[in-house]
């Protein structure tokens, strides 16, 4: 589409109508009429957006960024007029934010509270099979959830035959946008996102609510913090629709992220269906793609994705065998083989639920050495306290009480025995008096002082 050569106000004029921000234009100016003339269809709008990004128009990168932001606010995509009329008393629709298998999300302005919101409208074909009252009743359960990582539900209702619910509008984008183009995250980054999501899921599970549609599109970000959206909506739809929903062919959940039991149409689901979906999301974050197939019984037994492609195998190796085993367990076909809760899945991935660390021989010796030195110091302090201010100093504190089994510091011990392989000397079983006399007289070989030459 050629947008050049028309008459009309320049882009500079558009900026002046939006807060007085002045954007320098190139010699070959894009006309405001060009933008406003293509506001009829999505295809034309996308063509205009591409034209704005085109380097031929001479805008710098910063200029293009400002122009597109202003353009997005000044151009209204095609919105259903009947929907706009139905919600006009409370909300002003501005543009489409996204479309899914069950609903379309619009950016809207809440005139009552003077704020931008995300208004999600169920598809007309789906709404026709749902009982309005029952759907609204079920969705109120989700509205009762209060958690820092769960997106709140502001409002819900029916207008002109449309079923909708309203949520806060978050400008931080979604996890899907962060993973665009197959971008991968390091395991630490992935767990930093997954852990708050798991915490939100665990809270909802305790409240008796299961999400049933965990996917990157439903993980949003507010000031960098992950927020779970659409909580309990899939449950509300499936409960309200009943048997009618199955006949419509509408998927309750998202293929590729649904657990095997959910994909099979079972309705008696528990928290492990969300565990499966969360494991898929974590897998996608670190590998760049969803698993594509369910792990076999042997894969669960060995803790490895035995049928992973060569590309996936390379990336799983980078993640580490422990994390891979945790993901295999989270994605098990049989729900009784999975991690029982989202928190357990995160524990498996972080190693909190795994075996304790095994220390090397050198580490063990260093630990024993340090513990021995601490014990010797404590014993000397005890001896000084027992003697009191008037007691002798520098003599008995250097010797061990009879039968104490306390060894002297390792450095002295090794030097006198001549080998680090014998760190503990035989116990000195002489009486305190004998040891004191021997020490005061300073006679005989050095070994006699230590009790070897009796």
Can you walk me through this structure?
It is a single chain. By secondary structure, this protein is α+β, with helices and mostly antiparallel strands. It has four domains: 11-74; 81-168, Phosphorylase Kinase, domain 1 (2-Layer Sandwich); 175-350, Transferase(Phosphotransferase) domain 1 (Transferase(Phosphotransferase), domain 1); 361-382 and 397-450, no CATH class. 45% of the residues lie in helices and 10% in strands. It has 21 helices and seven strands. The strands form two sheets. The protein has a five-stranded antiparallel beta sheet. The chain has a two-stranded antiparallel ribbon with strand order 6-7. A hairpin with a 2-residue loop joins strand 6 and strand 7. The N and C termini lie far apart (107 Å). Mean pLDDT is 74; it is low at 1-46, 70-76, 393-398, 403-407, 409-422 and 443-454.
What is the ordering of alpha helices and beta strands? HHHHHEEEHHEEHHEEHHHHHHHHHHHH
- Which sheet architecture does the biggest sheet show? 5 strands, antiparallel
The CATH architecture of the largest domain = Orthogonal Bundle
Based on secondary structure, the structural category is alpha+beta
Strand content: 5-15%
Question: What's the Cα radius of gyration?
Answer: 35 Å
Q: Strand order within the widest sheet? A: 1-2-3-5-4
CATH class group of the largest domain: Mainly Alpha
> What's the domain count?
4
How many helix segments? 21
Look up the CATH topology of the largest domain. Answer: Transferase(Phosphotransferase), domain 1
């Amino acid at each position: 589409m050629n947008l050049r050569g028309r008459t009309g106000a320049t882009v500079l004029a558009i900026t002046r109508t939006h807060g007085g921000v002045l954007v320098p234009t190139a010699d070959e100016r894009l006309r405001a009429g060009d933008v406003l003339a293509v506001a009829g269809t999505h295809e034309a709008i996308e063509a205009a957006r591409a034209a704005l990004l085109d380097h031929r128009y001479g805008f710098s990168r910063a200029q293009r960024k400002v122009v597109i932001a202003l353009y997005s606010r000044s151009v209204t995509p095609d919105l259903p007029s009947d929907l706009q009329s139905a919600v006009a008393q409370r909300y002003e629709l501005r543009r489409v934010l996204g479309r899914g298998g069950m609903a379309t999300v619009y950016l809207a302005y809440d005139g009552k509270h003077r704020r931008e919101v995300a208004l999600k409208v169920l598809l007309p074909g789906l709404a026709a099979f749902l009982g309005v009252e029952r759907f609204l009743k079920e969705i109120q359960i989700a509205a009762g959830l209060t958690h820092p990582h769960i997106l709140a539900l502001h409002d819900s209702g029916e207008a002109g035959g449309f079923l909708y619910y309203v949520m806060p509008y978050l400008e931080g984008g979604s996890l899907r946008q962060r993973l665009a183009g197959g971008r991968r995250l390091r395991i630490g980054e992935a767990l930093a996102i997954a852990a708050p999501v798991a915490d939100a899921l665990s809270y909802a599970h305790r409240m008796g609510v299961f999400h049933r549609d965990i996917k990157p599109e439903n993980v949003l970000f507010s000031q960098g913090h992950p927020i779970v959206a659409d909580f309990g909506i899939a449950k509300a739809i499936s409960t309200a629709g009943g048997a009618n929903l199955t006949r419509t062919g509408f998927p309750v959940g998202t293929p590729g992220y649904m657990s095997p039991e959910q994909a099979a149409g079972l309705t008696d689901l528990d928290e492990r269906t969300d565990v499966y979906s969360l494991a898929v999301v974590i897998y996608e974050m670190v590998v760049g793609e969803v698993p594509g197939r369910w792990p076999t019984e042997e894969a669960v037994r060995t803790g490895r994705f035995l049928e992973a492609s060569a590309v996936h195998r390379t990336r799983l190796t980078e993640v580490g065998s422990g994390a891979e085993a945790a993901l295999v367990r989270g994605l098990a076909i049989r729900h009784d083989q999975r991690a029982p809760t989202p928190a357990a899945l995160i524990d498996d991935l972080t190693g909190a639920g795994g075996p304790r660390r095994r220390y090397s021989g050198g580490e063990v010796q260093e630990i024993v050495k340090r513990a021995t030195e601490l014990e010797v110091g404590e014993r000397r302090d005890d001896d000084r306290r027992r003697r009191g201010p008037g007691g002798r100093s520098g003599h008995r504190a250097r010797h061990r009480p009879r039968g104490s089994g306390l060894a002297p510091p390792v450095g002295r011990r090794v030097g006198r025995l001549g080998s680090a392989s014998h760190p503990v000397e035989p116990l000195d079983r002489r009486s305190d008096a004998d040891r004191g006399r021997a020490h005061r007289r300073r006679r005989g070989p050095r070994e006699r002082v230590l009790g070897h030459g009796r």
